[in-house]
Amino acid sequence: MVTYQEAATAPLKNTGQIRLYDEDAFAGMRKACQLTARALDELAAMVQPGTTTEEIDRFVFQFGMDHGAIPATLNYRGYTKSSCTSINHVVCHGIPDAKPLREGDIVNIDVTYILDGWHGDSSRMYPVGRIKRAAERLLEVTHESMMRGIAAVEPGERTGAIGAAIQSYAEAERCSVVRDFCGHGVGLLFHDAPNILHYGSRNEGVEMRPGMIFTIEPMINLGRPHVKVLSDGWTAVTRDRSLSAQYEHTVGVTDTGCEIFTLSPGGLDRPGLPN
Ligand code: MF3
Ligand code: CO
Ligand code: CO
């Protein structure tokens, strides 16, 4: 017996099957992802010493509401905020709170809006005031890692090509790649198959095909790759307390490579860094 509720949500379950989306879906993703990118653009001016991550989170909530979108993280598996804000040695899933940002901090802001059922998932690093040269280098390496992963997206190749491109570059730059979190299929679901590992080799993973949509969101550390999750059940930090950074784009596989849905409309893909 299948209940009405099961029947209604069956097409939206993560069954491990990889969805191939059509051109209408790509159009829906473009809109959702561009809304997320616009919010991340607006946040660039807001990230200053003294701003609290709760203020950032309120902006993300309100901007979504004003544009007919819902933050996907709200009430997701018990998470109660509209964004994740991960500062310094926080790797990911930092929970917005009342503590002001301080000069020299680096903060990742991760936003996912659901617009007309489509999920736009993206994050960027924001320097708070002037930051140290080592921190700036980590942001540059992490952004370049993500872009090299994106450049490895090609139909016929395996998803392992993405991880291989990221790992070989990041480690050559004497940084490490976090293993405990990965990119993911996205679209009508927030987290779907396939997993996108940010390390590994070319011949691993599944074959990429036109119509697949997923995120690439490497977390790169200045120190060792190991993380632990704090007692709040969410906040992941580096075990050695070294600085960690992350950027995230949502991409769709095309016949020749991929389309980056979450590119900044304002040229702010790397806020605070020279373009
Ligand atoms: N946006 C995150 C991602 O990139 C997921 C956050 S889930 C939360 O996949 F519950 F921690 F918000
Ligand atoms: Co994601
Ligand atoms: Co995200």
UniProtKB/TrEMBL annotation:
**UniProt: substrate binding residues:** 93, 191
UniProt GO MF annotations: initiator methionyl aminopeptidase activity; metal ion binding; metalloaminopeptidase activity
Cofactor(s) listed = Co(2+); Zn(2+); Mn(2+); Fe(2+)
Q: Record-annotated residues binding a divalent metal cation 2?
A: 121, 184, 217, 248
What GO cellular component entries does it have?
A: cytosol
Which SUPFAM superfamilies does this chain map to? Creatinase/aminopeptidase
Q: Does the keyword Flavoprotein apply?
A: no
Catalytic reaction list: Release of N-terminal amino acids, preferentially methionine, from peptides and arylamides
Q: Which residues form the Peptidase M24 domain?
A: 28-255
Q: In the record's cofactor note, how is the cofactor described as bound?
A: Binds 2 divalent metal cations per subunit. Has a high-affinity and a low affinity metal-binding site. The true nature of the physiological cofactor is under debate. The enzyme is active with cobalt, zinc, manganese or divalent iron ions. Most likely, methionine aminopeptidases function as mononuclear Fe(2+)-metalloproteases under physiological conditions, and the catalytically relevant metal-binding site has been assigned to the histidine-containing high-affinity site.
Annotated positions binding a divalent metal cation 1: 110, 121, 248
Note the superkingdom of the native organism: Bacteria
Q: What does this protein do?
A: Removes the N-terminal methionine from nascent proteins. The N-terminal methionine is often cleaved when the second residue in the primary sequence is small and uncharged (Met-Ala-, Cys, Gly, Pro, Ser, Thr, or Val). Requires deformylation of the N(alpha)-formylated initiator methionine before it can be hydrolyzed.
| Assembly information from the UniProt record | Monomer.
User: PANTHER family per the record?
Assistant: METHIONINE AMINOPEPTIDASE
The name of this protein is Methionine aminopeptidase
Q: What is the lineage of its organism?
A: Bacteria, Pseudomonadati, Pseudomonadota, Alphaproteobacteria, Hyphomicrobiales
